[in-house]
Amino acid sequence: MPESLPGFSRRTALRTLAVTALAAPIALRPLTSAFAAPTASPLWHPNPATDGLKAFEGIEADRGNHHPDRKYVVVEGGDHYRFNIWADDRDTTGGGDRQRTESKGMVQNGTTLKMRNGETWTIAYDMYMPSSLHGTSKFTHIFQTKTPSTNGGPWVTIDLSRSGSTEIIQVRAYANSGSPAIAKTNLAPLRDKWINIELTLTPGSKGSASAIIRSGAGSGAPIAAQGHMSNVNIPDQGDYVRPKWGIYRSVQSAKSDILDTYLLFRNYTATKA
Predict the structure, then answer these.
(1) Cα 199 from Cα 271, distance rounded (Å)
(2) Which of 65, 128, 151, 240 has its CA 20 to 30 A from that of 203?
(3) Is 20 a domain residue?
(4) What is the DSSP string of 156-185?
(5) How many CB atoms neighbour CB 34 within 10 A?
(6) Is the pTM of this model over 0.90?
(7) Checking phi first, is residue 216 left (phi over 0); if not, alpha (psi -120 to 50) or beta?
(8) What's the structural domain count of the chain?
(9) Which residues of the chain have pLDDT under 50?
């Protein structure tokens, strides 16, 4: 367990890691089209220090109230969110086979932002993954998109998985046949430092998704993986598509991969084209 997990009194020390063994891009489009920077002002740009957890529609953690003394999602250091999870946590779904610490939705100044069919949204943020957060043989989602009214999905996810001893981070069209990767790369070089994630999503039953995983903080950091996919199943189902962040994972993976751990997020933005 990270030393700062119980009290959150110490900031996690950052250290530089070399980015190696990067996977080849998948189904790439030119940077001037699929990955062009948005020109509109962000509709969602929460400030952790002033917005706190009001930046989200809600928090899903310890829904069975088994550990009321634990702090699952907190503002740390005034500039980022910390999502904690413990190995003995269990969610109320799945019959005890999974655990969850997630935020859901995007709220700006009290207004919930909703992604609907045919709209194109770009969501970006910095993320810090410690060495205690492992890729697993069963599912580990650190980002999901779902439809609230139907509980439909997950549609597009970011997963931490493994193939033998190699751990992988991948953005996936999870609801498509075979849950293909939109972009993926080795996880190890991206741990223990701030990295950047950028997703461009157009909801619909035949929507589209682009993804960039950067090996450092901010939009100018080197690209570790990127890709674009059409005919991605991201339907609003007459409601809207809602993003979720945090750790949602099966505990049926190897015990050595289910550790007390956390995720950090900062600099959230969401822009509609």
Answers:
(1) 11
(2) 128
(3) no
(4) EEEEEEEETTEEEEEEEETTSTT--EEEEE
(5) 19
(6) no
(7) beta
(8) 1
(9) 1-38
